[in-house]
User: What shape does this take?
Amino acid sequence: MSTKIKILLVEDDRNITNFISTTLEGNDYKVTTALTGREGVSLAASFCPDVILLDLGLPDIDGYEVLRQVRAWSRVPIIIISARTKESEKVTALDLGADDYITKPFGTAELMARIRTSLRHSRPATPDHIYRALNLEINFEKRQVRLSGEDIHLTQIEYQLLTLLAENSGRVLTYGHIMNTIWGPYMDAGNQILRVNMANIRRKIEKNPAQPQYVFTEIGIGYRMLENENV
Amino acid sequence: MNQRLRNLPLWKQHLYSLLFSITCMGVATGIALLYYEIVPENSYNIPLIFLLAIIIVSRYTVGYWHGLACCLFSVIWFNYRFTYPYFNLNFTLTGYPITFMVMAAIAVFTCAMTSHLAMQMDVIREREKQLAEVEMEKMRANLLRAVSHDLRTPLTGIIGNSSLILERGDLLTPEEKRTLIAHINEDSNWLLNMVENLLSITRIKGDNFSITTTEEPVEEVIAEALEKIKRRYPDTIVHAKIPEEFILLPMDAILIEQVTINLIGNAIEHSGSRDPIDLIVSATPETVSFTVRDYGVGIPQKKMENLFDGMPVSTSQTSDTHKGMGIGLSICKTIITAHQGTLIGRNHAEGAEFTFTLPRKQQTSERT
Assistant: This one.
């Protein structure tokens, strides 16, 4: 029996499916391709993939619809592959339950990294107690943040914000998701309070806020933290 | 007539004019009565008070009629109240028709001058609007021309190289094939960059070049631009210096990011130098300036004049002819103009530098 990780690719352009599946198979994944949205939904049920790569522009039903239908019963990681460049569309996909997105065109290295990140987050069997990347270390049990061995003092909100990003390191979290998690659903629509807190965090952990090493901005979408090396 | 009033419907303009006329006449009468109380023996100055009121009314009301009506009212009222016999009309006074005619003439002249002035203002405003439209049309035409030129060249390369591999693949050595494929890859990446630029332009809406701005932290925009630059040019070093304070600036962040990427990309590809590039952000209470400074050959003097016109760079200056900074800079200019900012390019002692400046408070998007 094959123990290869299974990937379902829902994408209608044959050139792209060809290139992606060749790449993935070369990296020892088992790939199945669906050319339409309906086929994608039914294969998601029968093939039991470990990761789904989903294109938003499909010929029969909208990518969002596929996302909704699969999310209705499955928590399998879904990575959106999209040629749509509007931030609002990416945010919609993420808020509908997609784990990550990658914009066409993309390099193979980027795709592989995203797949690895998604796979890791889909297996919460071993909860991380420590986040470690470059010189930054967060100890979730001791509630301690250290940079090059020095303690960093964060406010309550800043700590919550940083740990939320660290627990989801490598994935983009939308402004809306972060606002909801930290400040609750009754906060008014603006996200300036989030921006200001992030600016404060950056001043505490980054050498140069204009060239951050740990927390990256995806303009119009949200924040992404450097991948945890401690796995 | 002030501008605000002129934008109202006509009947409202007349209503305001009427109220204004009545007020003026009332005030004039009041002053005249007061004056008459104090110095009853000298009534020669009273017509002057009414004259002044008529001029004011003529200047600040629509059309001739309000001024003329006030004129008629003044003459009759003056006759009735301030000349002997009091509280009686007597049109047989010596010189009375002269008084009336002079006052009427002044009212007519003032009205004519005022409306002429207003008309001229309208003409000037209209001309300015047309000029702005021509300017935008020119920008668009330049952009299209630059696009067709700049897109064609890399496409030729891609088609040529790939056909060569398809048709004569068996005869080529692996190294030769690799070189051809590398060229295809390079050209496609350049095309991608161009497409991204063109896409960004679609965010600028319609004929009046308006954009949707939100308050964005400057450091985040810079950080993401630098992240993308690092991905595209992994070997290049950019030193970024931004103010310590947290700056929120109204902008379309994606567009400003694109401008930053274009300027840094140009500095990398056209400076002819591998020295680190400086990106310096500085803030004043009214504006925030972004400067990209390279330490290379500088901008050729003959390019200075139409730097932002979308013309391709002269082929003698650069090794790869198709990588013109044409479209890039012209798009930057368009974006910064839409933000009501300024973009300038100049040479400093050791290379070239481009600075764009954005206002911290966005004026109303309406252009007048």
About this structure: Chain B touches chain A at residues 192, 196, 199, 215-217, 219-224, 226-227, 238, 240-242, 246, 248, 253-254, 257, 279, 281 (CB under 8 Å).
